[in-house]
Automatic annotation (TrEMBL):
A matching Pfam family: DJ-1_PfpI
InterPro entries in alphabetical order: Class_I_gatase-like, DJ-1/PfpI, Prot/Nucl_acid_deglycase
Protein name per Swiss-Prot or TrEMBL: Glutamine amidotransferase
Annotated keywords: Glutamine amidotransferase, Transferase
Superkingdom to which the source organism belongs: Bacteria
UniProt keyword Transferase present: yes
């Protein structure tokens, strides 16, 4: 099975994962692995207590298909740096990373947005929160996009974020992904 890792931490934005994880979990091709820094319980921004299946130290980067980073205020406060080396190793090994909302700030801090097309909540805000960010020339005013192995999304775009991930991992044929998008975004059911 192809492994998709989802990083959880106190204050993660649970709604940003709500559309994509059930669809991935339905597939027999993928295993979703939820992890935290230490493998202990975390509480989402919405108050949901979650027990991750592992800690980041247990991850073998050779087995990672995709790493998903949800948003949360911890990214703005720079409260998480324990996974810095994990991300750098994933990038070095051409593994995919998906970040939404505040998690895009983290990618900017690590310099991972400097050479790829990307988006975030707002360019001005990204530059204010991450003074070392140097990707202005690659910033796209879009809800979500993929360039190379980096997927980024605005915090108001969990459905578009899910679509980018589904396409990247080839979860379903493109026409089925479009039907899924129309259903969840616009309430349009088509056979």
């Amino acid at each position: 099975m192809r492994k998709i890792y989802v990083f959880l931490f106190d204050g993660f934005s649970d709604w940003e994962l709500a559309y994509l994880t059930p669809e991935i979990n339905k597939s027999e091709q993928f295993e979703l692995i939820y992890f935290s820094v230490d493998g202990k319980f975390v509480k989402s921004m919405g108050g949901l207590q979650v027990k991750p299946t592992s800690s980041f130290k247990e991850i073998d980067t050779r087995n990672v298909e995709l790493l998903i980073l949800p948003g949360g205020t911890v990214w703005e406060k720079r409260e998480i740096n324990a996974i810095d080396n994990l991300l750098k190793e994933l990038v070095d090994n051409e593994k995919s990373i998906a970040a939404i909302c505040g998690a895009t700030f983290y990618l900017g801090q690590l310099g991972l947005l400097d050479n790829v097309l990307h988006t975030s909540n707002d360019l001005g805000y990204l530059k204010a929160v991450v003074p070392e960010y140097n990707g202005q020339g690659k910033y796209q005013n879009q809800l979500a996009l993929t360039d190379k192995n980096i997927i980024t999304a605005n915090g108001i775009a969990p459905i578009e974020f899910a679509v980018e991930i589904f396409k990247k991992i080839q979860l379903k044929p493109d026409d089925e992904i479009e039907k899924w998008f129309q259903l969840f975004k616009n309430g349009i059911w088509s056979e």
